[in-house]
Design brief:
The chain has two helices and 34 strands. With 402 residues, it is mainly beta. The strands form eight sheets. A five-stranded antiparallel beta sheet has the order 1-4-5-6-7. A five-stranded mixed beta sheet has the order 2-28-29-30-31, with no helix packed on it.
Amino acid sequence: MMKKGLILCLSFLALSLSAQNNIQWRGTDRTGIYHETGLLKTWPEAGPALMWSYNGLGEGHSSVAVDSDKLYVTGLTDGKGYIYVFDTKGKLLNKKEYGPEWAESYNGSRGTVTINEGKIYLITGMAEIYCIDQQNLNVLWKKNFMKDFNGANIQWGVCETPLIIGEKVIATPGGKENNVVALNKNTGATIWSCAGEGDSSAYCSPLYIAGQKIPQIVTMTANHIIGINAATGEKLWSYPNKNRHDVHANTPVYSDGMILCTSGYGKGSTMLRLINDGRGVEQVWFNGELDNRIGAMVKVGDYAYGSGDANRFWFCVDWKTGEIKWKQRGLAMGNTIANEGMLYCYTDRGEMVLAKATPEKFDIVSKFPITLGTEQHWAHPIIYKGVLYVRHGDTLMAYQIK
């Protein structure tokens, strides 16, 4: 029994270490919560030390992904998308073109890559999904949402990070037939297709919820929040969710049977509860003031934190009731990640802010300006091994925060 327990313990430790070494869209589990220890609780007045920076990524808003101490990010140059690979000291290890990328409005690469078992998965603004060899960056297979699934591109170009579940890669072509699909991650063959509600895609990267009787995928399409059986592709439930521009760019936030979905453009935030073993949902609360558009929210303890869109304030909301605990103006809107009870807020005016996650007030302890880079401050930052990585358009920066 002792030997068996030791093996189980070591297996769990190995899985934990593997997860910590693989950072994808908003961390290891799409929550925006990182799990580092010993990070600085305040920063120097001029900001934490800039370890290195790289200029030359091209245009884009995709975040950094990490796998085994290598950094992966994408960018647009002369109409073509490129994937870049760096080591943690800032050395460019590899760069390769993968295909056409979005250059029509707010130009640049969009969705963050997902890395899994030696392969890189990428969805472009041109509505194509790629599987790329991690070692040599050669394309292994690709699918086009329009040609292969009768989908359609959307106003500002598809923006989605692929979701890997076992042997499946999940993507959202949109449309009436193949609204959400599961493809074999090794071959690109269709495993299942779900018609959903027939909406277009809505810039949303889906979430996987394993802790239910029926493990499911939750995502937002143009007019609905939907839940899909991860094994079969059966639509389990849907809930109406519409705004002026069909933009629902934030991955839902899940905890203990409850799903928080938030959008801008006049919508707000809806909290749903899974019922009937995950086959249905009911609304717990709705708050139209919490209109986070692209910056996402984080749940820390019993509260969620984020920023508004038209309602230009940062806020804290009670997870269970929807009651706003505080709202604070004075900073531009932005995106939010968290680690050990601290919020890392990156505004679209280029301020990086460190604040305590507390329901009492917006307790800012440090901030500094991001002065390098180009165009919009939209890419979500990440934390990896004591370093804060910030992508601002053409530039990638690494700040020592431990």
